[in-house]
């Protein structure tokens, strides 16, 4: 057998690895021609043309020649169709191997129609390039797009999310500022293996929560996400600002237009609708952090939408701050604030660590790990929380 025939009959062997260079993120790093005969001891030949092979596959992807699959990505006005090849898709992804099988595939005029409305067209194009060439160019992707890419690669079972997380600088958190609203919606639905990334993003959002709450888009945030945020103890924002936002959010969900500054025009139906919208969220507000003057500005509204027991507890607290509330909804007194806020905003008294002062079974409990001498002492006024006696505990290990 001559060498030309041997080359023609040779087989390609692809070895998967991971290489990251200026060109991008490569998953193929070695392609060799293996000869089906034993070469002479004096001559050993190995021909590599990795770049040429990738170019040919990229041409096949971009041209769509001889395609048998139509992928429709996106939804509403943001929809795009891609032409692909079932042989390559099923070879590169176990997800596609199942989705494009005879039992699952939907065909029209001999072409398989595959719809993925939850994957953005831009992300789908990146995924198809990876499928055909093994390349993902992370250097030219925004953080928001990388987040969407992570979700898509995990859903399509490409098993490269850990490598993307490793090479992309998520720790800088700068990508969150691109679109905090969208980042919040994405990371809220993340689960394993993205738990650590989710925690990083959510903590960063909470650290800058005042800026995020003031974004106009936040009035359209989903209720489960808003409820989750209100349940967190690390929101760096004054409670009355959260309450103002919550009232705005509630009004934005109502079908008719109402004005919080003119509640005299509200109907009974308006109050009932507002109460229904906010009934899960209002008890999550740390009402005892709201200055009494601000509360009384909207007292009539709160009386109509708050649970009666909670409303009575708040009024009693303003009249006599020494009284321990009885309502089960009033167990949480204060939202915890990080050290930098406690010592610099000049609106708080002594600080006992970064946990809540809570009321359980009529016993006042204070948890903490530090105190701040630079914080101003309590002022004897109706706006302050009185502590007549307390114990200080040192916690060596925080779980």
From TrEMBL:
InterPro entries: BACK, BTB-POZ/Galectin-3-binding, BTB/POZ_dom, SKP1/BTB/POZ_sf. Residues 67-140 form the BTB domain. This is 11948_t:CDS:1. SMART domains: BTB (SM00225). PROSITE patterns: BTB. Pfam families: BACK, BTB.
